[in-house]
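sry for the spam today, last one i promise. struct tokens for design, 151 residues
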């Protein structure tokens, strides 16, 4: 049985397996920067999240299977020291997609933001991963700008 639980943000290692799957996905769909994703180790991501946790607030929700305690999805939401919110990372394993887990994770993030009087938050989507835009539109989010990067 799968369930969503709130996780201790200091125990970031719990998202390592799903974060690596998300990174592999971004590597495979990236039009220009697949090497960026392939060269981005979890240790670097972990350090950034730990730094952020010291300067802002972090919420981590996990999808776990009760029968084996394996993690099959995650949602990381952050509020930075300036009071800006961001749904920083969202991943749901393929076999659980279409079963409302992603929607539940986003709804939990929205509730958390609202509890902290954050009425607007950002979601960054990697180029090549536009298939998720329709998912986020159900929450009222639309593409706003493009952030261009030179190699």
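last one done:
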């Amino acid at each position: 049985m799968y369930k969503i639980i709130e996780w201790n943000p200091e125990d970031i290692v719990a998202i390592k397996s799903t974060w690596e799957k998300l990174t592999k996905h971004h590597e495979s769909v990236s039009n220009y920067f697949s090497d960026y994703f392939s060269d981005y180790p979890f240790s670097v991501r972990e350090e950034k999240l730990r730094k952020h946790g010291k300067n802002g607030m972090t919420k981590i929700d996990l999808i776990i299977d009760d029968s084996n305690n394996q993690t099959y999805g995650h949602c990381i939401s952050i509020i930075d020291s300036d009071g800006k919110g961001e749904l920083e990372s969202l991943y749901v394993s393929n076999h659980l997609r279409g079963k409302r887990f992603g929607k539940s994770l986003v709804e939990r993030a929205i509730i958390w933001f609202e509890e902290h009087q954050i009425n607007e938050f950002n979601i960054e989507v990697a180029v090549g991963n536009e298939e998720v835009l329709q998912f986020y539109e159900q929450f009222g989010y639309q593409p706003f700008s493009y952030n261009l990067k030179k190699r």
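The first helix runs from residue 16 to 29. ok im logging off now
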